[in-house]
């Protein structure tokens, strides 16, 4: 698997949970009182924002909302204990 910004972000997400700093968005979402529902809620919100951006003619906003959606999906994977590398492996398997 190639090193990518996705892997770097995943490593940061894992490290925030292992060594929580005082202020961290990742920790706020993944230790929320709502439990995994908080990260799932965020995926729903960000997916909606991406869809709205897709329907509007603002390329920069479409890029921004797509990045938000990818990131929050990664948080949700962490919340449900799915390894990011397994998702990459599945994409690689399909790509052959
Ligand atoms: N990629 C992100 C990232 N994207 C968004 N956010 C946070 O998510 C929140 C909402 O993001 P938005 O930009 O969507 O903010 P918004 O415009 O108010 O919200 P929307 O209306 O667009 O949903 C903000 O508090 C952002 O700081 C992120 N917070 C962290 N990361 C990554 O996670 C790493 C660890 O972050 P910390 O845990 O905060 O140290 C960082 O180094 C980044 O790589």
From TrEMBL:
Query: Can you name a GO cellular component term?
Result: cytoplasm
Q: Does the keyword Cell cycle apply?
A: no
Q: In which pathway does it act?
A: Amino-acid biosynthesis; L-histidine biosynthesis; L-histidine from 5-phospho-alpha-D-ribose 1-diphosphate: step 2/9
- Which Pfam families does UniProt cross-reference here? PRA-PH
GO terms for biological process? L-histidine biosynthetic process
User: Can you say where in the cell this protein is located?
Assistant: Cytoplasm
Q: Name one GO molecular function term.
A: ATP binding
Q: Does the keyword Cytoplasm apply?
A: yes
EC numbers on record:
3.6.1.31
- Which keywords does this Swiss-Prot/TrEMBL entry list? Amino-acid biosynthesis, ATP-binding, Cytoplasm, Histidine biosynthesis, Hydrolase, Nucleotide-binding
Q: Which reaction does it catalyse?
A: 1-(5-phospho-beta-D-ribosyl)-ATP + H2O = 1-(5-phospho-beta-D-ribosyl)-5'-AMP + diphosphate + H(+)
Q: Which InterPro entries does the entry mention?
A: HisE, PRib-ATP_PPHydrolase-like
Q: HAMAP family recorded for this chain?
A: HisE (MF_01020)
Give the similarity note. Belongs to the PRA-PH family.
Protein name, entry field: Phosphoribosyl-ATP pyrophosphatase
Question: What is the source species?
Answer: Methanomicrobium antiquum
């Amino acid at each position: 698997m190639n090193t990518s910004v996705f892997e770097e972000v995943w490593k940061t997400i894992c490290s925030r949970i292992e060594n929580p700093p005082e202020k961290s968005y990742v920790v706020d979402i993944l230790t929320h009182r709502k439990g995994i529902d908080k990260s799932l809620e965020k995926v729903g919100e960000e997916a909606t924002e991406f869809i709205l951006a897709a329907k509007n003619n603002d390329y920069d906003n479409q890029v921004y909302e797509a990045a938000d959606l990818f990131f929050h999906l990664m948080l949700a994977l962490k919340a449900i204990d799915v390894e990011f590398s397994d998702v990459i492996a599945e994409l690689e398997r399909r790509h052959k």
